[in-house]
């Protein structure tokens, strides 16, 4: 199969063996569409992921289940799916009690990802979606789930909120908030004078950080009322400088938001409540990866996608003996 592989030599499109030996709780997903994320760019640049060895990139996926391990229900074959990229370790106290994993791996970072024709995954990572849903929408469920985390960060619809950042990530944050009844939302991009007037100091109850620099964080702290809430959304590689002399006297709450519910994200995307099309670029073939990565470095105005596969002509299925004899991940 084709796979976009990052190794110490760089990123290249190579041929690798298609996964065939599945653990009992695993599935094989044929990838139809995949979104390019900032995290993928970090791994491609060698800033994240294994220092040695190779890794298949990609974690925002739309696909179809084409094979299963012995313990996976047969009705999952043929299901259209998105993916929660957090891979449970299965052994920590949280996993053994059914809680969210305390130290999950991450698809495309710690284990091979989905910029490939096929990807092997734990069945627990799948998010089922309606069959008629646009493949780009399915691949976009992961960013929507990540954005939904801000709704659970202790904010209320009647409060006044500020979304700080640029491009599609900030636009998605504002759209998700409005879909959840937040009507008093103001967007501001400190790097763009045309984005509007600087927020009035001390007038916002909460602010969402979407990849800002020191100037952006300064604007956030200035805009918030005393005891307001700073919601940190981005997963940036570089440290972010925060002026504690400004933060502490206002007794601001600093909250990190990681992921919301993937099932809720899937329902929200399927409902059509969000108009996502203005945030999307036209998909490109995996063979154009160099140009797509270069475009991502020039800005984050629109989401970039790879078209990877077409609907399968037939489904595969391993027998229980073959599946159960496979080594675990």
Properties at a glance:
Rossmann fold, seven-stranded mixed beta sheet, five-stranded parallel beta sheet, 329 residues, 2 domains, Quinone Oxidoreductase, Chain A, domain 1, 25% strand, disordered C terminus, alpha/beta, 10 helices
Q: Quote the average pLDDT.
A: 91
Total beta strands: 17
Poorly predicted parts: 318-329
CATH A-level architecture of the largest domain: Alpha-Beta Complex
How many distinct helices?
A: 10
CATH topology-level name of the largest domain: Quinone Oxidoreductase, Chain A, domain 1
Instruction: Give the C-alpha Rg.
Output: 21 Å
Counting structural domains, the number is: 2
Strand count, sense and barrel status of the largest sheet are: 7 strands, mixed
| Secondary structure category | alpha/beta
Termini distance? 20 Å
Task: Describe, in plain words, how this protein is organized in 3D.
By secondary structure, the protein is an alpha/beta fold. It has two domains: 2-140 and 280-324, Alpha-Beta Complex (Quinone Oxidoreductase, Chain A, domain 1); 147-256, Rossmann fold. It has ten helices and 17 strands. The protein has helices at 38-44, 93-96, 135-139, 141-148, 167-179, 214-223, 244-247, 262-271, 289-298, 320-324, and strands at 2-7, 10-15, 26-35, 55-56, 60-68, 80-83, 86-87, 105-106, 118-122, 126-128, 161-165, 185-188, 204-210, 224-232, 253-256, 284-285, 305-307. Strands 3, 5, 6, 9, 10, 16 and 17 form a seven-stranded mixed β-sheet that branches. A five-stranded parallel β-sheet has the order 12-11-13-14-15, sandwiched between helices. A three-stranded antiparallel β-sheet has the order 2-1-4, with no helix packed on it. 42% of the residues are buried.
């Amino acid at each position: 199969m084709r796979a976009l592989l990052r190794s110490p030599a760089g990123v290249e499109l190579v041929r690798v063996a298609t996964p065939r030996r599945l653990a009992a709780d695993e599935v094989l997903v044929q990838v139809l569409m995949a979104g390019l994320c900032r995290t993928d760019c970090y791994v491609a640049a060698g800033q994240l992921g294994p220092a040695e060895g190779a890794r298949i990139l990609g974690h925002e996926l739309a696909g179809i289940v084409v094979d299963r391990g012995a313990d996976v229900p047969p009705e999952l074959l043929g299901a259209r799916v998105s993916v929660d990229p957090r891979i449970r370790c299965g052994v920590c106290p949280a996993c053994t009690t059914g809680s969210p994993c305390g130290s999950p791996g991450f698809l495309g970072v710690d284990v091979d990802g989905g910029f490939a024709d096929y990807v092997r995954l734990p069945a627990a990572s799948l998010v089922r979606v309606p069959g008629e849903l646009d493949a780009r929408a399915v691949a976009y469920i992961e960013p929507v789930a990540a954005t939904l985390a801000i709704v659970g960060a202790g904010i209320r619809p009647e409060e006044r909120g500020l979304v700080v950042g640029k491009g599609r990530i900030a636009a998605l944050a504002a759209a998700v908030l409005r879909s959840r009844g937040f009507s008093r939302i103001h967007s501001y991009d400190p790097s763009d004078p045309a984005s509007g007037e600087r927020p009035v100091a001390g007038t916002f109850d909460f602010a969402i950080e979407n990849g800002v620099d020191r100037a952006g964080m300064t604007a956030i702290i200035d805009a918030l009322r005393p005891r307001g809430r700073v919601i940190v959304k981005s997963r940036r590689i570089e440290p972010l400088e925060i002026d504690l002399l400004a933060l502490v006297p206002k007794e601001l709450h600093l909250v990190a938001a990681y992921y919301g519910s993937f099932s809720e994200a899937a329902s929200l995307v399927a409902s059509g409540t969000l108009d996502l099309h203005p945030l999307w670029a036209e998909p490109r073939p995996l063979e154009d990866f160099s140009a797509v990565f270069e475009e991502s470095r020039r800005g984050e105005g629109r989401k970039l996608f790879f078209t990877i596969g077409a609907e399968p002509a037939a489904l595969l299925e391993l027998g229980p003996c073959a599946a159960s004899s496979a080594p675990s991940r």
